[in-house]
Fold this protein.
Amino acid sequence: MLRAFVIAAAVAAVGVIISVHGSWAATPLWMLLVPLIVATGFATWGAINVRSNYFIRTHSKGRSSDKSVALSFDDGPATEFTPQILDILAQFNVPAAFFCIGYRVEQEPALMQRIIKKGTSSAITVFPQSDVRSATQLCHAH
């Protein structure tokens, strides 16, 4: 909602500035840049403050009476850390989500299979479009 308002306000401001000066050519460049800079500032603020819901609605807090936390492991699987993490999660029967990078999944297929077999939530991100089929086959090969 705020994003739409900021964009509309910037467009309206540019329109008003141009109409006051009569044309694009007669309008000083700095006057056209001010609304764009303000809109860029809001976008930057929204990117830095995820809880602002500027770009998409986010859920950063859950309502629960018990003390719980959601665990997410990104940019793996990594040979040096993922096996240790999986061992600890299994030891304490803790669920977690793994977001894996496509080329690392290709480099570590056995480790990806272990993530899948543990029953954790997993997703593959940043995979070239042409390799999506092979990644899907890898994930369903267990």
